[in-house]
What does this fold into?
Amino acid sequence: MRKGLLAAGVAAVAVLAAGCSSSAASPGGGSGDVVLRLGFLANITHEPALVGLEKGFFAKNLGKHVTLKTTVFSSGTEETTALLAGQLDAAYVGPNPAINAWQKSNGTAIKIISGAASGGASLVVKDGITSATQLKGKSLATPSLGNTQDVAARYWLKQHGLTTTPTGGGDVAIKPVKPNSAAVLEFKSGQINGGWEPEPYATEMVLDGGTRLVNEASLWPGGKFVTTNLVVTQSFLKDHPSVVNGLLKGQVQANDYINANGSAAAQAANAELTTLLGKGLPANVLTQSLTYLTFTNDPIASSLGTDAKNAVAVGLLKPVSLNGIYDLGPLNKLLKAAGDPQVSP
It folds into this structure.
């Protein structure tokens, strides 16, 4: 039931996004009023967004003259489309959607202004599959073509001598499935042999009898790689720096709360999912999913460059310079004021 509600909820907010797009970046009705359109995913990898909304951190720091309009998307690829179409001002997105937005706009569309989360992605396969070689001739799901998990899956397979194509050919058929909850259903019914998915969907596949063949953190130095960034359009950053500062304050407070109050923060995130989708995550899924995640404002910039190189290696991205993609000045001012370590691009 929860998975069906997730699909319905995402579809409903997609309609909302189209409905509010025309007024989005314009000032609101009162003097000095601004509308901030924020996108995110209904994944626990976007817990800072969920907690920031449920605990009121964004509303408090944005103030009464800013109207926050939120839209839930089913993939970062869809968020990239919305950002480039002028339908969003800011978004929580994975590294590859951020890279795609940067490349497609020739470096004019967005800036990464903060990290949000690290970890929380895995390759889960049918019980009995214990190695990459056993995946030849099999099918795997990813959230969408060219998204962060899709690139990770294709690159890992390439490292193990297995080919893929954007159209589902090659040694291993990669099948983009959205929403993510649909991939869980296809895995349970035997339509696919596994999937490289973010949390909580990877854990749901495990609980449905799957084996976690690859915890993506094991592939990165120190187990650290960026899963979720906070980006803002360059036009909104230029026109409304104080609003962006308020958004960043909310992000920092959300992560502070998550790291100081793990259980309470998880319940807050789940309460927000319930508000958005009609039903939250079962307690065991929520608890297990969060063991694979770290919430940090550090964008772990080194992993972004690697993500771009991996996407090029599997033929899903043309070579791109990421110089200038970060604007961490506002974040570092907040971190310095709070006595917290600053981050670097």
Observations:
- Residues 70 and 119 are 24 Å apart (CA to CA).
- Residues 1-31 have pLDDT under 50 and may be disordered.
